[in-house]
Amino acid sequence: MARRRQIYEGKAKILFEGPEPGTIVQYFKDDATAFNAQKKGIITGKGVLNNRISEYLMTRLGEIGIPTHFIRRLNMREQLVREVEIIPLEVVVRNVAAGSLATRLGIAEGTRLPRSIIEYYYKNDALQDPLVSEEHITAFGWAATHDLDDMVQLALRVNDFLTGLMLGVGIALVDFKLEFGRLYENDEMRIVLADEISPDNCRLWDSRTGEKMDKDRFRRDLGKVEEGYQEVARRLGILPEA
Ligand code: C5P
């Protein structure tokens, strides 16, 4: 089979032209980066696990009516998705203080937040994805107010659903990052969930012991990185056969 045309290579994924117009193939790599690519490494088997985990979570979200770009998983490392126009924002939802919020505001990591907090970051590697406000987003035209409203509503629904789903398997959903895209279909535009949802972009702690099962194991040199991702897949009941 002729190799598909590569459209884009990111830090953790490669995007190829899909088999039909309006489709894209997402290939999941084992490469891991942190701190704006200052730290680089390989987590063996990560791509396979993230492909599975993201397939599972996007499918469950689709079932409750959250529009996503996901179509189907193709093989161990690839999934077919709809081509969307990516909105240049990272939408972070936080339930418990951790990471940059804990550092920026001096709140002890692990402190439950009074309510879920949404933050926006402008997707720009050269600027190291700066924190931005709704004012910046609408003034600079990255998203219109009604698009941002849609994203917030969807992000909160994703948070409610995933919090429950994870808690059911003994995992606390501390925070996570979402990306959205514009999907054009029949002369209409819809905002849909894009990218991936995996331990690369969620903080997942064992709800009993607090043990980290996400990319912080790599960021903070905690060891057993792949094992953390595997444990998430195992608890979700989707661990791929060795
Ligand atoms: O680093 P910070 O605390 O702001 O991260 C919040 C959440 O967003 C974490 O779950 C992290 O994995 C995710 N994130 C991400 N991609 C980034 C920045 C953060 O997936 N570029």
Automatic annotation (TrEMBL):
Keywords: ATP-binding, Ligase, Nucleotide-binding, Purine biosynthesis
GO molecular function: phosphoribosylaminoimidazolesuccinocarboxamide synthase activity
Enzyme class: ligase
InterPro entries per the UniProt record, alphabetical: SAICAR_synt/ADE2_N (IPR028923), SAICAR_synt_PurC (IPR033934), SAICAR_synth (IPR001636), SAICAR_synthetase (IPR050089), SAICAR_synthetase_CS (IPR018236)
Domain of life: Bacteria
SUPFAM superfamilies noted in UniProt: SAICAR synthase-like (SSF56104)
Annotated EC: 6.3.2.6
Reactions catalysed, as given in the entry: 5-amino-1-(5-phospho-D-ribosyl)imidazole-4-carboxylate + L-aspartate + ATP = (2S)-2-[5-amino-1-(5-phospho-beta-D-ribosyl)imidazole-4-carboxamido]succinate + ADP + phosphate + 2 H(+)
Metabolic or biological pathway, per its Swiss-Prot or TrEMBL entry: Purine metabolism; IMP biosynthesis via de novo pathway; 5-amino-1-(5-phospho-D-ribosyl)imidazole-4-carboxamide from 5-amino-1-(5-phospho-D-ribosyl)imidazole-4-carboxylate: step 1/2
Domain SAICAR synthetase/ADE2 N-terminal: 6-235
UniProt-listed Gene3D superfamilies: ATP-grasp fold, B domain (3.30.470.20), Phosphorylase Kinase, domain 1 (3.30.200.20)
A Pfam family reported for this protein in Swiss-Prot or TrEMBL: SAICAR_synt
The keyword Transferase belongs to this UniProt entry's keyword annotation: no
UniProt family annotation: Belongs to the SAICAR synthetase family.
NCBIfam families reported for this sequence: purC
HAMAP family: SAICAR_synth
Protein name as annotated: Phosphoribosylaminoimidazole-succinocarboxamide synthase
Organism: Roseococcus pinisoli
Recorded name of the encoding gene: purC
